[in-house]
Amino acid sequence: MVGARGLLLTMGKFHPKHWREWLLYQESRFPEVAELKLVWCFEIMARIETKMLSSKTNYATYLVFKFVETREGFETRPIEFDVYFEGNDTHKMHSALLDPPANMPQLSLNRRDGCMEIGMGEFFNENGDDGAVICRVCESEPTPKCGIIIEGIELRPKNGR
């Protein structure tokens, strides 16, 4: 897992107007998380060297997050997810609402640690010499967003090839 401190938080990283960073969060595997205060352009990225991962392995990636009580912008505008090898122009983006209304399907799953996770995408790590995998969360139309705690982006091996 790439914890919040290892992520690129676009739009105001280290600026207290946009993110409250490095909050202590006891339920997290990592001692620190980042809480979104307010942004108009939402983007989070992780860069993982494939040599750090098992070769000949399928991986699934997940955004691990939690909402605070007062939140905005995640119930009406979809967030886009993209997982790809750095330098590869072929992307399979998909989108989902992180906080859909009650009458829509919930795509995120509750975790035992009190957070939620939503699938971002998958990739196959051939030999571990593919460079880096980029895991990206963004939005296509800027809207005000606030009230989400980002724990990190998790990579897990999938069964089968």
UniProtKB/TrEMBL annotation:
It holds the Pfam family PP2. InterPro entries: PP2-like. This is Uncharacterized protein.
